[in-house]
Design goal:
By secondary structure, the chain is of the alpha/beta class. The protein has a single domain, classed as Alpha/Beta hydrolase fold, catalytic domain (Rossmann fold). Helix content is 26%, strand content 18%. The chain contains six helices and ten strands; from the N terminus they run βββαβαββαββαβαβα. It has an eight-stranded mixed β-sheet with strand order 1-2-4-3-5-6-9-10, sandwiched between helices. β3 (35-38), α1 (49-57) and β4 (62-65) form a beta-alpha-beta unit. The radius of gyration is 18 Å and the shape is globular. The two termini are 30 Å apart. The relative contact order is 0.14.
Length: 288
């Protein structure tokens, strides 16, 4: 237990067990749709704990979880993990959706996806159970559209660190870069391959992914990103949204100075120090 939260186990269609955390809404009764928070690549669910507690205080039931191969969803040694990004979208997110709906006795959920957690809806088989999508720093991460130091760092990570660490250690090392938890080798390899070209997960359609739901998704989609984000740049945000031709799309661009922050970047939005930004999420939730 963490505060008023409950540690839960989520079972995927292939039998894989994910570790999650359920945050019940404050008060006696809530008619609001539950919220599922999908994490960024290599980021533990506990990173979103304060945000989840804040949402619960607003009257929402909230579920967080770790993708397979990460945190509480890693079983055994990392080098032995066969987890992949396509597993995250095709198995993990669907299982989390079904779990929170069964837990709350609702028929639809609001999905809040951070970075990678916002890149995969188009391959989620039960996408019809999502009433609205809110992406934070969600984009394709196309390397040619990155900016700043990340434009230099990304090729080093993809072309040198990943191949070397995968070969000698059996996993993608990103902790040494301060970018999160080390990654299963398949995740590292797919991350590299997807970001080498525009469209991210689009690059796996027809290859390792046979079902594509992007063009069938018509729900409201809002992406919130910061002007100082070196990964979710405007070009990469637009690259992600183009994959959903039928959706009701909206973007919100944040200027750090306007919100009295020295930075927001790719990770700042969910930090407790940036809580004044969360009102933007509240406004989006009121539109559901």
């Amino acid at each position: 237990m963490q505060g008023n939260s409950e540690s839960v186990s989520i079972y995927c269609q292939d039998g894989y067990q994910l570790g999650g955390c359920f945050y019940p809404h404050a008060g006696e009764f809530s008619q609001k749709l539950p919220i599922l928070i999908c994490p960024a690549t290599g980021i533990l669910q506990k990173f979103y704990q304060h945000f989840a507690c804040w949402l619960a205080a607003q009257g929402f039931d909230v579920l967080t979880f770790d993708f397979r191969g990460i945190g509480k969803s890693l079983h055994g040694k990392l080098k032995n993990s066969q987890a992949s990004i396509q597993d995250w979208g095709m198995l993990d997110i669907p299982a989390a959706i079904d779990y929170v709906l069964a837990k709350t006795q609702q028929t639809q959920v609001i999905l809040i996806g951070h970075s990678a957690g916002g890149q995969l809806l188009g391959v989620v088989p039960n996408y019809g159970k999502v009433a609205k999508f809110i992406g934070v720093a969600a984009s394709t991460g196309y390397v040619k559209k990155l900016k700043g130091k990340t434009k230099i760092l990304a090729p080093v990570m993809f072309d040198f660190i990943f191949p070397i660490s995968n070969y000698f250690m059996g996993y993608g090392a990103i902790q040494i870069l301060g970018m999160g938890e080390n990654l299963p080798k398949n995740v590292a390899n797919q991350w590299r391959a997807f970001c080498k070209h525009a469209g991210y997960i689009e690059n796996a359609i027809g290859k390792t992914i046979s079902e594509d739901f992007h063009s069938q998704i018509t729900i409201p989609m809002t992406i919130i990103y910061a002007s100082d984000d070196e990964i979710a740049t405007q070009a990469n945000v637009e690259d992600l949204l183009r994959l959903y031709p039928q959706a009701q799309k909206k973007t919100i661009r944040l200027e750090p100075e306007a919100w009295r922050h020295p930075y927001i970047g790719h990770m700042g939005f969910f930090k407790r120090s940036h809580q004044n930004l969360w009102q933007l999420i509240r406004k989006e939730l009121d539109l559901v």
